[in-house]
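Re: weekly structure request thread

Next one in the queue (79 aa):
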Amino acid sequence: MVYNNLSENVARIVRYCKTSRRKTQIMKEMNFSDLEIEAYTAILIRQQLLEQNFREYRTTKQGDSYLDTRNRVEITLRK
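Done, posted below.
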C-alpha cells in the first residue's frame, strides 16, 4: 500500500516508533528514501512527537496524545 498523505505518514511513523526504532527500520517499514525519512524525523522531533536517543527514535507522550486525538477524530468521522 502506498501512502502519500502527510498526516497518514506522520501517524504511521509515530505509531511504529512506540517501540524504539532505528532510522533504517523506519525507512524499510515506511518504504521511504533517506531524504524522506530525514525530513519526517526532523519535523517530528521539532514538533516533539518523537525523541531521538542515540540512533533510535521513540514516540513521546505528546506523540501518544497526537495518536489518541487522531483516533478519536477518525471514529467521529466514521459515524
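Strands lie at 21-22, 50-53, 56-59. The domain at 6-78 is CATH 1.10.10.10 (Arc Repressor Mutant, subunit A).
Next request, please.
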